[in-house]
Amino acid sequence: MSIQRGFLRHWPAISWGMGILILTGLPGQMIPQVPGFLDLFEADKIIHLVLFGGFMILLYRGFRKEPGWKNQKALVFAILIALALGGLTEVLQKLTIINREGSIWDFIANAAGVGIGIIISSRSRGFFISQQKQ
């Protein structure tokens, strides 16, 4: 397997993850405030759900395409990487980024997004069925 072919399987997840790092690395004053109805649902937490749910879906789909990988292995690797990125972004915000605060509540929202990604992926064809064509 060439590096290029491996990258092609994972470029959506890699791109999405880089986007998460860029967005979570922006200084606080650069993030627009959304007043109004969305305040009831804390738009910030909804954004975390969407970002990490999407990341989980893309990771799982990429790993599932790896030759010889069973769905369970792909799922475990995707969960571990998505949760690690969720934790890393909060630690980086706490330690390095001006006007941003890492938060356990944000990490919980990241983890909930991963959970939503698992649920959405489970609805896709063949999620819990082992890959039969190796």
Structural features, described:
This protein is mainly α. The chain has one domain (3-122). It is 66% helix and 0% strand. The chain has 4 helices and no strands. It has helices at residues 3-25, 43-64, 71-95, 104-122. The longest helix is centred in the middle third of the chain and has 25 residues, at 71-95. 25% of the residues are buried. The model is unreliable at 129-134 (pLDDT under 50).
Task: Looking at this protein, list some descriptive labels.
single chain; 134 residues; mainly alpha
Q: Main sheet?
A: none
What is the N-to-C succession of helices and strands?
HHHH
Q: pLDDT average, as an integer? A: 79
Total helices: the number is 4
Overall domain count: 1
Shape: globular
The low-confidence runs, each spanning 5 or more residues with pLDDT under 50, are 129-134
Report, as a whole number of angstroms, the end-to-end distance. 14 Å
Share in β-strands: under 5%
Content-based structural category:
mainly alpha
Share of residues in helices? 55-70%
Oligomer: single chain
Question: How many strands in all?
Answer: 0
State Rg: 16 Å
Secondary structure layout plus pairing:
Layout: H1 3-25, H2 43-64, H3 71-95, H4 104-122
Helix pairs in contact: 1-2, 1-3, 2-3, 2-4, 3-4
Brief overview:
This protein is an all-alpha fold. Helix content is 66%, strand content 0%.
